Amino acid sequence: MAAKFARHPKQALKDYEEKVPKGIFRYCQKCGAKFYFARAGKYHVCPNCGYGFRVTARQRLKMLTKQFTEWDTDLTTTDPLKFPGYQEKLTKAREQTKLQDAVLTGQAEIRGQQAALGIMDPAFIMGSLGTANGERITRLFEKATELSLPVIMFTASGGARMQEGIQSLMQMAKISQAVNDHRAAGLPYIVVIMDPTTGGVTASFASQADIILAEPKAMVAFAGRRVIEQTIHKKLPQGFQSAENAYQNGFVDAIVPRSQQVDKLGQLLTIFAGQKWRGANGE
Length: 283
Ligand SMILES: [Zn+2]
What we know:
This protein has nine helices and nine strands. It is of the alpha/beta class. The longest helix has 20 residues, at 165-184.
């Protein structure tokens, strides 16, 4: 007769984990792997499936370059609706991310090439798009146009910021116009989709780039899965709204792991350098 376990293996693991200090083990929400935290390495990536964990914009910047001049650091929201509890949320997010709102922008050098760089911060109220970060992204494109620089934008967003109502929705049109002016000046625009890129950001500037790259296993979506299923009365296939699915359907040009992004971006910037880029539709 087979020996009986004193405890179920899962329970044994759980008991063991309870004795281990917090933060020693990491859990991947994409593949379910549990691993010693240091194995995620300097790029904060799941060693099992390659998913890039959500990190703040400043942590993300460290993975890309040391040569960076920050722009428009002091732009803050006016809280147009005086939304209850919003100020407390902002204070907490500012402490956590060391940013005034959910994006970091400036001029960066990547592999010897100059570019205007924007990195959205999923830790700042889900990277939601409001008036302050909307304005900061708009100015990123305007300044890049003025200085004849390409734009690289790392996107991560839960969509429009509900605490700012319709004014947050207007940012989509405002940014899109600045993207358009940048394109009309013959300058290239590259997007790197991080997890999660959803809502108004997907519907506007995340989809308007000349080249769209994505991180492995990143969620890229417009509306949430449940909302779509309830609207069309159909079950959506597995893997729907993943970067891999978007790649297979031609929405994403390449999936690039974090460890290869600097090389890839450097390569693209070098190709574009010194020439007027005409855009995908040859305008
Ligand atoms: Zn994983």
